[in-house]
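tRNA pseudouridine synthase B, Bhargavaea ullalensis. Tokens?
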Amino acid sequence: MHEGILPLWKEKGMTSHDCVFKLRKILRMKRIGHTGTLDPDVEGVLPICLGKATKAAEYITDAGKTYEAVISIGRATETEDAGGATVDSDLSEKQIPADRVREVLESLTGEIVQTPPMYSAVKVNGRRLYEYARKGIEVERPSRTVVIHRMELLSGEPVFAGEEPQFKIRVECGKGTYIRTLAVRIGEELGYPAHMASLVRTASGLFSSGDCLTLQEVESLREAGRLDEAIFPVERALDGFPAEELDDDLFARVLNGQVLPAHGQLEENERMVFTKQGRAVAVYRRHPEKPGLMKPEKMFGSPEEKEENQ
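Tokens:
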């Protein structure tokens, strides 16, 4: 059985669930999970967790993402992207200096408040917003704070001109950021309706486009018996946490999932990884109710168990 993280390049026209369904058939295994939804019309990096690595999926989902988006100025849509019906437009001739776009990008860097679009997978009262939207029902949406780490204008023109000028940007952001909602906000700051014309996710956590395989490439490698060459160990998803190699005494206690005195690494970090022979055994975190103690959050088992599963 395959074990680890398979960075997939999700192609346009597929949902994240479609990718998991197809991989289950290709790999002939059920324990597969993705690490955050990508809309069907978005392509890009979608790390897939296989076997016990599904336990690490939330850490990849929570990590930062990098996107390249094309912003179209002059028309706002129902879905905030190119697939929606027009709800507002200003098709006057425009002259938008690149320096002005950079000023707006800079002003929106840091913490910003977003309201999820109606056509999104956010749940309100147990139902996803897009279910309400498809029935024409408007519901109150919870605003949330997201973090934009960095934005960069990639288009090189000094002025973006025309009735519906476009420009390309790169966005490095935290969990839960809606790039199409950001596109609308950029348009508002420039004084025009806007939408996201296209989007590519170029990185998810520590996985980038250069790590990825398409579904067709996955199938070819599996048929050639070489797929394991493209699968990353679960430790790659945990690289952002401090790690400690276990001695034999502590190894037995951690392997049993015991609550233990808090490790010094947890004074400044919420989580840490315990390893044996360089392989992840468990992720521990500060105990939420008992100061001075730590408890297991995820258990990955002994290195010997992992070898047997390869």
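Residues 16-27 form the longest helix (12 residues).
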